[in-house]
Amino acid sequence: MAQYQYAAKNMEGRVLRGRMEAVNENALQQQLKEQGLYLIKVKNVSEAKEQRKLSSRQIAEFCREMSALLSSGVSIVRGLEIIADEEGVPESVKSIYREMLAELKRGTSLSEAMEMRRCFPELMLGMIRSGEGSGNIDEVMDRLALHYERDNRLKQQVQSAMTYPIVLVVMSVAVVILIVTFILPQFDELFSQMESLPLPTEILMAFSDFLIHKWYLALLIVLIIWIVLRILSKIHAIRRTMDYIKVHFPVAGKLNKVIYTARFARTLSSLYSSGMPIVAALQTAGDTIGNIYVEEQFVQVASQVRSGIPLSQALREVDGIQRKLSSTILVGEESGRLDTVLDSIALTMEEEAEAATKRLVTMLEPVMICILAVMVGFIIIAVMLPIYQSYSAIEGSA
Predict the structure, then answer these.
(1) pTM score, two decimals?
(2) Residues 16, 20, 23, 27: is their CA dihedral positive or negative?
(3) Distance CA 339, CA 87 (A)
């Protein structure tokens, strides 16, 4: 149950404040009404705790075990009891399962119990609601397990592929800091004897002096930049513009389209196959793409499909989704086998997305090597230029 902090009026008009546990705000309002109180203000004080999100791996493990238990005839309550008592499950996750179990024993449905915890994705909640309505929740759990296993595998591939670029960035920064703070100061005495220094050398020496004597300001500047970027990334207009660039950037834009298409196709296939109506499935799948610019277009897509326009035609106008998807869906619509076609195109697009992700990461390596070469080259030129000029001046005077 959620913990609510409320303000309510009694029959005399006096405002009373307090805390109370309830399933949701409607249940809280009913409980207060039975006490002769009328709710005027409410705040979910346990919301911060409930915002913990389970990882794709944890969700996949939960769904796989629940599917196996339900398929063997075990009830949902008993299945959740077994999972909650397993060894190796983090205590924080066990507490979530136990709280869900308590709600189930009160008569709450599984989807409602999961929704109260606010740590399960909307895709999962939508599919489980459909499974509860159709009575095939074991099949839905199996599909969810497969969905999140693939999602986790893709994330692991990205993390593995990003290891080398991240190490390269760290090493590049470390090398530059080492050169600027420990090696360059050795040239101070030599450069101080020169009447004038080239502009690159003056810039480099000033930067070196700043890092040595005012390193705390450098850290503060980095922290401020990081905070500003975090704030800017939460502004809808800026984030939408950045997501638009992700779709239209040369080379990388095409690869991103493949990834977005695969993500959408996999989600739509899972939702539609679980029995969810196509319009509701579109709205949920559109919110899982991970690009605001593309996601916003699915409001219009859902509206068009609701008005009778074929799904293949509505998807053709989405900027950020490959045309291959709409062409394949058209075949499914004409043959009356949309669920089978969606499942097939989802598998195909996932393979292409994995290859596209690897290509995106591979593109980063030469770019970062070039950036490192430019930084080191600038340092070498800045150090050697005054020395070269001094030798030239000596030769000229001789």
Answers:
(1) 0.68
(2) negative
(3) 38
